[in-house]
Automatic annotation (TrEMBL):
UniProt subcellular location: Membrane
Gene Ontology CC: one annotated term: membrane
Transmembrane parts of this sequence: 34-51, 63-81, 87-112, 119-136, 142-161, 181-203, 215-234, 241-260, 266-284
Entry keywords, A to Z: Membrane, Transmembrane, Transmembrane helix
Domain EamA, first and last residues per copy: 5-136, 150-284
Family per similarity comment: Belongs to the EamA transporter family.
The name this protein goes by in its record: Drug/metabolite transporter (DMT)-like permease
Membrane-topology annotation of the record: Multi-pass membrane protein
Length: 301
């Protein structure tokens, strides 16, 4: 498979998880119960991939902090807010919100001195902010009765992902590759969330019948694991800069799948915001030279 075909496939798979999330929360399932299944599927899939490659996950205390931090800011906290916001927001809006990850990551990286300031990137962040304002501002952007506060809540997820990326660049991964890091984080996240998922009526049972919501939970977990594994493969084959372009496709496919699977339609303001968001992402994306800085803490960690 060519690198471009792989990029398209990964973007399509990852983008489909966005409307599936909307379906998963449609019947009132508790976010904690949904996160449990996502982490369980991820642990099994990524663990199988790790062992199939002849690798073993180190579980010494030196790795606990890495796994727990990634589990918290990479899954538990952002997904808790995303699932709650997905009840109230169209899936296409959620897809646009996820595109804010590089907009949050860039100023954090500047604060940690992981990146050099560039005018183009500041413009990109500004375009992202304008796009969000266009979504929540005009009355025609959000469906009737949807409070703009849910857009603000949904922004917690991309903020967490921006923090996660910078944390890994700052502290390093202790010699582990991305699949091993995500496997460890899924395992530790599963350990952390299980006591909460099985108490207080939060558990999502899949033995009482598989409806659309339950199938969406399972499908989303499998697609996410497959897409992430494909992303790691693409980084190794075509490089991180080329692979990072998948962010555009995740947003675009998220909107397309939401229209096809959920019948969503969007106001002109949303389409204009979509264009600004893509332009902002293009400006914020790192250039090859930026990812090879010899003085970057990420290179020496």
């Amino acid at each position: 498979m060519s690198a471009f075909a792989a990029l398209l496939l990964i973007g399509a798979l990852w983008g489909m998880t966005i409307p599936l999330t909307r379906i998963a929360v449609s019947t009132g399932h508790d976010p904690v119960g949904l996160i449990f299944w996502q982490l369980l599927i991820g642990t099994i899939a990524l663990g199988g991939l790790t062992f199939a490659r002849g690798r073993r996950l180190p579980l010494g205390r030196a790795y606990w902090g890495l796994f727990i931090v990634v589990a918290l800011i990479g899954t538990l906290i952002p997904n808790s807010f995303s699932y709650r916001a997905a009840v109230h927001l169209p899936a296409g809006i959620m897809a646009l919100v996820i595109a804010m990850v590089p907009m949050f990551a860039m100023p954090i990286a500047l604060g940690l001195r992981l990146e050099r300031p560039r005018l183009g990137r500041f413009v990109g962040v500004g375009l992202g902010a304008i796009a969000v304002a266009m979504i929540v501002g005009p009355e025609t952007s959000l469906p009737a009765g949807v409070a703009a506060v849910w857009v603000a809540i949904s922004l917690i997820a991309p903020l967490c992902y921006g923090l996660e990326g910078n944390y890994l660049a700052w502290k390093g991964t202790r010699g582990l590759d991305p699949v091993e890091v995500l496997f460890g984080a899924s395992l530790f996240g599963l350990i952390l969330v299980t006591p909460f998922a099985v108490t207080g009526g939060r558990f999502v049972s899949l033995t009482d019948g598989l409806g659309a919501a339950e199938l969406a939970v399972l499908s989303s977990g499998v697609l996410h694991a497959a897409a992430y594994a494909g992303y790691v493969y693409l980084v190794g084959r075509a490089g991180s800069v080329f692979a990072s372009q998948v962010a555009y496709l995740v947003t675009a496919f998220g909107v397309i799948w939401s229209m096809l699977l959920l019948g969503e339609r969007y106001a002109l303001w949303v389409w204009l915001a979509f264009g600004l968001m893509l332009a902002g992402m293009a400006l914020v994306q790192p250039r090859p030279a930026d990812q090879q800085k010899p003085d970057s803490p990420a290179q020496s960690a």
